[in-house]
Amino acid sequence: xxxxxxxxxxxxxxxxxxxxxxxxxxxxxxxxxxxxxxxxxxxxxxxxxxxxxxxxxxxxxxxxxxxxxxxxxxxxxxxxxxxxxxxxxxxxxxxxxxxxxxxxxxxxxxxxxxxxxxxxxxxxxxxxxxxxxxxxxxxxx
Length: 141
Hints:
Layout: H1 2-17, E1 39-46, E2 56-61, H2 74-83, E3 85-90, E4 100-110, E5 113-124, E6 129-133, E7 137-140
Parallel strand pairs: 1-7
Antiparallel strand pairs: 1-3, 2-4, 4-5, 5-6
C-alpha cells in the first residue's frame, strides 16, 4: 500500500513538472529583464563606403501611419550624420508593441529630397525590441 501511494505521489510530481509552456509569459509578469536600453539602428553609406549625412529622417508604422521617429537634439543628429548611423526602433516602444511584430518604414531626407526608403519588420518581447527582417546596412548608389 505504501509503495502504491509513493508511486502515485511520484507520478503526480513528475506530471506537474512537465508542461507544454515554452517559457514565454505572454503577460510578461514573471519575466526578469536586463536593465540595458536597446536601439535598432541602420547605417547608410554611399557607393564609396562613406557615411551619408541625412538632413532629417522619419520612421513610420506602415499600416497605421504613426510617427515612431526618435526625438533627437542637434548634437545627436550631428553624431548620426558623422557616422551615417540612425535609430530605427528602440526600447521606448517595447511596452507598446510587446509580443507583437510591426512593419516600419525608414525615410531619409537630404536637400529636401527623400533619398532613402527602407521597410523593416521589428518586434518586441517582454523586455526589448529586436529586428525580424530588413537590412541594417543601406548602400546608396
